[in-house]
Amino acid sequence: MRIITPVAEIYRAGDPTNKTNTLAQETRKLGSLPLLFHPGTRWLYGPSVDVQALLVERLSGMPFDKYLEQKIFKPLGMKSTRYVLRRRIEPILLSCTTGTRTVR
Length: 104
Prior knowledge:
The chain is mainly α. It has a domain of about 55 residues. Helices cover about 50% and strands about 0% of the residues. The termini are far apart.
């Protein structure tokens, strides 16, 4: 869903979710922009997980991916879990949906 309002245009121009932004840059840009709507009046998927990731980095003193690896994935024995999909895992995921297993 694309919201078309003056505030939405300001938000798009601010480009906070550009993938080249670091977490710090993204949250700094988000903090400088007005809200798209008043809290409680509407709901929209947004960058809240990115803001939470920055908080984890600041509070733990670790990069977010390292924190996930050391504090969550490794202790739980989650060897194939990643925050970002790796190409070599795609055939395994495809096999889950097609019923075939072809790993290269």
